[in-house]
Amino acid sequence: MTQKRVLVTEKIAEEGLEILRRKGYAVDVRLDMAPEELAAAIAPYDALIVRSQTQVTPELLDAAANLKIIGRAGVTIDNIDVEAASERGVIVCNAPTSNIVSAAEHTMALLLACARRIPQADASMHAGSWERAAFTGTELYQKTLAIFGLGRIGGLVAERARGFGMRLVGHDPYCSPERAAALGVELFESVGDILPIADFITVHLPKTSETIGMFGPSELAAMKDGVVLVNCARGGIFDVDAVADFVAAGKVDAVGLDVYEEEPCHDSPLHEFDNALLTPHIAAVTREAQVRAGTQIAEYVWEGLEGSIVPTA
Ligand code: MLT
Q1: Residue 178 backbone dihedrals phi, psi, to 5 degrees
Q2: Would you say the pTM of this structure is higher than 0.90?
Q3: Phi/psi of residue 287, nearest 5 degrees
């Protein structure tokens, strides 16, 4: 029997690679391949494992003559053309719970860092200063946090924010009143009704035609003065050009972003503001999440290649 081949195009935990090798597969880790290079290399592989950077397009799938399964070592699958894969009989699976705690914790980290101006205070001390009044912050306690998207990650954020004594409001057309009540979130049907009452806004939404640009100039204008915005979900949900304008005008007190419309992102209209806290898509980059994602996806890829039923993404 010919040995099955797995191509891994982004860094996944060694524990996951080990599972695949122990199953007897030939595993090739080839990071940072250009799209043309990947298309030229993919034909012999039975499985492809990616994270969020590799774009799996119909063209790539056409070149993938032997491909049976694509494993996404993470939650979202917006870099994979799932429909094109299904049309070609290629299974797409993900690791849907692998990094949700890490994502929720990073959201809290950005909320707190924005509220207490941690990066600015740190930069000031590293520059040899001892300033205190310049970094007067805001408590989360008794402030209103609006959570857009009350799925797995939004729910974990709600639980954590409740521990800080925040009032929680939310919007999610797919969330039942029972779930919202269990999370302690007051559910609003209209986005417009939430914007003027939220001190902090965090989004936990997928990238879709409805969510991209969901918060543009008119939504920002409707927000409370001094609002703090956080996005650890997908780039583009907040229109960054508009956010930059409102940061410059002092309407937005701080913004914490982990995701960008174009990644890698080396420049954006927010780079010039020290109250824009920017992290390079690291919400899921914890040891624990990486091990979970790597091992979960390796197991699914193995099951898929051996003909078992795999929970598809
Ligand atoms: C995800 O969708 O799982 C996260 O954005 C993390 C990642 O892509 O690595």
Answers
A1: -65, -45
A2: yes
A3: -55, -45
Work out the mean pLDDT of the chain and round it to a whole number. Answer: 97
Q: Annotated catalytic, 234?
A: yes
Residue nearest to atom 6 of ligand 1 (CA): 284
CA of 193 to the centre of ligand 1 (A): 30
Task: Please give the Cα distance from 240 to 228 (Å, whole number).
Answer: 14
Please give the distance of CA 69 from its chain centroid, rounded to a whole number.
Answer: 23
CA of 52 to the centre of ligand 1 (A): 6
Please give the full DSSP string across 84-120, using - where no structure is assigned: HHHHTT-EEEE-TTTTHHHHHHHHHHHHHHHHHTHHH
For each of the domains in the chain, give its residue range(s) and CATH number, in order of start: 5-98+287-305 (3.40.50.720), 100-278 (3.40.50.720)
* Ligand 1 nearest atom to the CA of residue 98, by list position: 3
**Count of CB atoms within 10 A of residue 144's CB?**
17
Rounded to 5 degrees, φ, ψ at 120 are -65, -40
Task: Check if the beta carbon of residue 17 is closer than 8 Å to that of residue 298.
Answer: yes
Q: Is there a contact between 219 and 249 (Cβ–Cβ < 8 Å)?
A: no
Is residue 263 flagged as an active site residue?
A: yes
Active site residue 126: no
**How many angstroms separate the CA atoms of 180 and 191, rounded?**
16
Q: What is the mean pLDDT of residues 285-297?
A: 98
Question: How many whole angstroms from 33 Cα to the centroid of ligand 1?
Answer: 19
CB of 72 shorter than 6 A to ligand 1: no
pLDDT digits (tens, 9 = 90+) for 181-225: 999 999 999 999 999 999 999 999 999 999 999 999 999 999 999
Question: Does the Cβ of 54 fall within 6 Å of ligand 1?
Answer: no
